[in-house]
Design goal:
With 563 residues, the protein is α+β, with helices and mostly antiparallel strands. The protein is built from 15 helices and 22 strands. Strands 1, 2, 9, 10, 11, 12, 13, 17, 18, 19 and 20 form an eleven-stranded mixed beta sheet that branches. A four-stranded antiparallel beta sheet has the order 5-6-8-7. Helix 8 packs antiparallel against helix 10 and helix 14 runs antiparallel to helix 15. The longest helix is centred in the C-terminal third of the chain and has 18 residues. Pfam families: SBP_bac_5 (PF00496).
Length: 563
């Protein structure tokens, strides 16, 4: 990791991009529990919905927005080790049975939502039903974006007035990361009941899922609570939840500003309009500005997310595996890595596994043997010609018909993806394939609606991986946006979840990844370098955490105001 502390007199590099941030006062000296201290923090993309379990809301941006409002059972620390949220869970949950797998949570008797209603088993039951993938529990599988331990759970039951929660995995199944249940945050089921939704019926559960997606929660089970009406595409104000059952944070107010204009971030920081950020995107220009910015601390390291290209297999042309393989072979991933991140982070290298970075003990190179990502135009054309394609001038044809132009999409304002899109467009032109570049302001919606032919985006990861291949590639997963349907892959990704140890899960996961590579469905690019920054004049005790989506906000309740 590279940590740089800059205390220079030089002014930040000027940028012409418009600044769409509201000014705020810097934090004041704090005595704890809220004394008027305020921090404005950048979130670099809008969210698509308020229910992080749904495809529209299942983004790093929404996870950061609801952080500190929705109570979590536990989290991964920066070292990748699991820690229980001891404010909420007063025992150390352990398996009390291994066949079937059973564990219990003892909820803090004082743990209440800010309206006085208890945080209890009903909230855990709602989370399970939401992500169970079982239409008998939730119609249309609740529009859940994926499933992990929830898919395998047979029952969630409450006792001791709902303050003890017993979770049982279906008999004959296992899950090595059982402890991750509800790690992204519990929703207040009593609010859904107050809206008239019958949570004992599949239809009522589905209605509640949609309702939580459309509406921010008005209560809190964490250190902070939303003030006013937060906007997924604008301004989210979180103030101290005075009814919190644990220690109150020092920073009284955290204002999240959605700002997609990378060029405005550092000027806003040096002008005192924001105090920091840990964006999920990257550009060399921002790093250059940070290097010259006074009183700023920032860090760079290999991140907890990875960039990739997905193909829409429902596109008639892309349903041909040979064309997909030719497209992937033509793309030069090393050039992408160098041109996007190499100047400021020369350690960047092509990613060769969809699930494990090269530093993982479970890493196997499933990409290089296929020739994908090599940028070898001659080899790509050779394979295409063997499959019956012909390069006629500047146009690739099959049976005398030109391969139709493909829509290549990425998130608007994401500088690195803009560069990647232009490089892919040029690479594909070399094999006679036209890629028309389009941006989207709603990544979650675009993916959910399958409104693309080629899509550049990123997946956030955590040290937990057993359910990841299922979420990515199972034919029934709502996160399988390009609609891969491979029975062997389905079997392998289900097996990865149904084992006792991570090592066993990794064997099945790597087998699935090798098949996905053969299918030419997803082409990994790089582990996205991650960076964070903050103004040391105003803010202290900030650190990044690439083991979870919250990044540097992970310990916002421990941030301190500088005199």
């Amino acid at each position: 990791m590279e940590n740089r502390r800059k205390l220079l007199a030089a002014a930040a590099v000027g940028v012409s991009a418009a600044l769409v941030l509201g000014a705020c006062s810097p934090p004041e000296d704090s005595g704890g529990g809220g004394d008027g201290s305020s921090v404005t923090w950048i979130v670099n993309q809008a969210g698509g919905g308020w229910n992080h379990n749904a495809p529209e809301g299942g983004s790093v941006y929404v996870i950061q927005m609801v952080h500190g409002v929705l109570p979590v059972t536990g989290f991964y620390n920066p070292e990748g080790e699991w820690e229980w949220n001891t404010d909420l869970i007063v025992n150390t949950p352990e398996l009390i049975s291994e066949d079937p797998m059973v564990w219990e949570y003892e909820i803090n008797p004082d743990a209440n939502w800010s309206d006085g209603e208890p945080i209890d088993a009903d909230d855990f039951i709602w989370a399970w039903k939401m992500n169970s993938g079982n239409e008998d529990l939730c119609a249309e599988i609740c529009n859940s974006r994926g499933s992990d331990v929830d898919l395998l759970i047979d029952s969630v039951e409450g006792s001791d007035d709902g303050k003890t929660v017993t979770v049982t995995i279906a008999e004959g199944t296992q899950f090595p990361e059982w402890f991750t249940f509800a790690q992204d945050g519990l929703y207040p089921s009593h609010l859904a009941e107050a809206e008239g939704f019958d949570l004992d019926t599949p239809e009522g559960m589905l209605e509640s899922s949609h309702w939580f997606n459309e509406n921010p929660v008005t209560v809190s089970g964490g250190q902070y609570i939303f003030e006013g009406t937060p906007a997924l595409d604008g301004r989210i104000v979180k103030t101290v939840n005075e009814e919190y059952y644990g220690d109150l944070p020092e920073i009284e107010e955290i204002i999240l500003e959605v700002n997609t204009e990378e060029g405005s971030w550092v000027p806003a920081l040096t002008n005192g309009e924001v105090q920091g950020g840990s964006p999920a995107s990257w550009s060399d220009d921002v790093i250059t500005q940070l290097e010259d910015a006074p009183d700023v601390e920032f860090g760079i390291e290999s991140g907890g997310s990875w960039e990739h290209l997905d193909l829409n297999l429902d596109n008639e042309a892309l349903s041909d595996q040979a064309l997909r393989q030719g497209i992937f072979a033509a793309i030069d991933v090393q050039n992408i890595a160098t041109r996007t991140y190499g100047e400021k982070y020369p350690e960047v290298e092509p990613r060769t596994n969809h699930l494990f970075s090269s530093t993982s003990e479970f890493h196997e190179d499933v990409i290089t043997p296929t020739g994908q990502g090599s940028g070898d135009t001659a080899a790509a054309l050779e394979g295409l010609e063997e499959a019956g394609y012909e390069l006629n001038g500047d146009t690739l044809e099959l049976d005398g018909e030109a391969v139709p132009a493909l829509r290549l999409r990425y998130t608007a304002g994401h500088v690195a993806r803009e560069i990647i899109a232009e490089l892919i467009q040029a690479d594909l032109a070399e094999i006679g394939v036209t890629a028309n570049i389009e941006t989207t302001d709603d990544l979650g919606g675009t993916l959910a609606e399958q409104d693309f032919d080629l899509m550049i985006y990123g997946w956030s990861t955590t040290p937990a991986f057993a359910s990841t291949p299922y979420n990515y590639w199972h034919s029934e997963s709502l996160s399988n946006h390009g609609k891969l349907d491979n029975a062997e892959v389905d079997e392998l990704v289900q097996s990865a979840q149904n084992v006792a140890t991570p090592a066993e899960a990794a064997e099945f996961a790597n087998e699935a990844a090798a098949l996905v590579a053969e299918e030419a469905y997803v082409l990994p690019f790089v582990d996205t370098p991650a960076f964070y920054f903050y103004d040391t004049n105003y803010l202290g005790n900030v650190s990044d955490n690439n083991a979870q989506s919250r990044r540097a906000q992970w310990n916002q309740h421990e941030w301190t105001a500088v005199n």
